[in-house]
Write a structure and sequence with these properties.
By secondary structure, the protein is of the alpha+beta class. The protein is built from 10 helices and 6 strands, in the order H-E-H-H-H-E-E-H-H-E-H-H-E-E-H-H.
């Protein structure tokens, strides 16, 4: 059995040497750089950063240039106070006005300051959402990567099954040739070989499809070929109390709930600002040039500064102010409830995932021992088969037990690693080791 495995691993190693060896760290790094969802979330954060400005909050004045020209052609008739009558058909009247105007809201009940703080909270929200996207995609990449590792191990197990089945066919054929076995034994061995080859092809198909999906997550050419590591390293030192402490301060979904509460509180300040007066100041420099075919002044030209101040206050709007404030307060209450709900949800998920993690760690040890037992059993069975003291059914049973043990061992390692990744994702801190 050991010689078969040495030969098999040597063949796989020679094949893998011609392909790119992709580590999980490299896969994550490529995804962080290329993944479309991460890049979109990063651009959304840049938009939020651009929105944080004094002007967007209404704290700065606005300066505008204006230009107006009116032309009129009229049939005019004017009667002056002394009884004189003037008439003119197609009288031309022109008026042109241009200048610069500045307007500034200097007080709006502190609403502009609340809007500016709210814009900064939206920036923090965008940053946290980016972190959440990164965590999710990194988790997806690691899950897919270690799934490929598992499938690669299963392929090795199925390849081993084919090698053993080939040996069975040759041994059965030799025994049939010298008259020590019936044709049925050869046929049974051939059927088992065909079954193993079918299972190998099905597993290879799934293996290739999963590699394509990992390339998709990394946003690179889908047909890029690679091989992954042949083993899984599991962090067995995780502690539930440490994970809960990390989640309370780092879990993005909890942080999003906290930010949404601060946004709701700032929204209440903006609503309350409507109770105060709004004061605006304005100034400008305007040039006016007018011409008239009739009237006392045929031409009118002027230029100069204008300035003023305006104030307004909401005295009564049908009790809408009270309604809006009550709604804003209820939104704050809901935000607090969402924080408590999110914390409870995360802690519940952590406790459930941690129990699964502990179970999977035990299964890893158990399945590793099962592989050793199944391998020893297969060695003994094959030795007895070669000297003809055991039936082909017993050989096939030992062979399937070994393959299943290897598959369960790979699955146990994969599930344990996924439990580890899930716990770190919930804690908001996926570290690569």
């Amino acid at each position: 059995m050991r010689s078969i495995l040495i030969y098999l691993f040597a063949c796989i190693g020679f094949t893998a040497g011609a392909q790119e060896l992709l580590t999980v760290e490299e896969a994550v790094a490529i995804a962080l750089k290329n993944n479309y969802e991460i890049r979109i979330a990063a651009n959304e954060l840049k938009i939020d950063e651009q929105n944080v400005s004094l002007a967007n909050a209404g704290l700065l004045p606005s300066l505008s240039g204006t230009f107006t020209q009116d032309n009129q052609i009229q049939n005019s008739r004017q009667v002056r106070s002394d009884g004189t009558v003037q008439e003119l058909d197609n009288a031309l009247n022109n008026r042109m006005e241009y200048g610069i105007n500045l307007g500034w809201t200097i007080f709006d009940g502190f609403g502009m300051f609340a809007r500016y703080d709210q814009l900064k909270e939206f920036e923090d929200l965008g940053e946290t959402e980016l972190k959440l996207t990164v965590l999710n995609r990194v988790s997806d990449v690691m899950t897919t990567y270690f799934d490929i590792v598992q499938q690669q191990q299963v392929l090795k197990a199925l390849d081993t099954a084919i090698v053993i089945s080939n040996e069975r066919v040759e041994t059965a054929q030799n025994r049939f040739t010298i008259g020590k076995a019936a044709k049925l034994e050869v046929l049974n061995a051939q059927v088992d070989l065909n079954t193993d080859q079918t299972n190998f092809l099905r597993q290879k198909e799934q293996y290739q499809n999963t590699k394509t999906y990992l390339n998709e997550l990394m946003a690179r050419k889908l047909d890029t070929d690679f091989v992954v590591a042949d083993s899984v390293i599991i962090d067995d030192r995780l502690k539930l109390v440490d994970l809960m402490s990390l989640a309370d301060s780092q879990n993005p979904e909890i942080k999003i709930a906290l930010i949404n509460k601060r946004i709701a509180e700032l929204n209440l300040k903006q609503v309350r600002a409507n109770r105060y007066p709004q004061i605006n100041v304005n100034t400008g420099y305007v040039i006016t040039d007018a011409e008239s075919s009739l009237g006392f002044a045929r031409e009118n030209y002027g230029r100069g500064f204008s300035y003023g101040v305006g104030a307004s206050i909401n005295i009564f709007n049908g009790f809408l102010q009270n309604r809006n404030e009550k709604i804003a307060k209820l939104q704050i209450d809901n935000s607090q409830l969402q924080i408590e709900q999110q914390k409870q949800t995360v802690n519940s998920q952590l406790m459930t995932a941690f129990q699964t993690y502990l179970t999977n760690l035990e299964l890893v040890e158990l399945e590793a021992r099962n592989v050793e037992i199944a391998e020893e059993n297969l060695d003994i069975t094959m030795a007895k088969f070669r000297i003809g003291t055991i039936t082909t059914l017993e050989v096939r049973t030992a062979q399937l037990n070994y393959i299943n043990a290897m598959a369960r061992n790979s699955s146990a390692q994969f599930q344990a690693k996924m439990s580890e990744v899930r716990l770190k994702e919930l804690a908001g801190n996926i570290e690569l080791e």
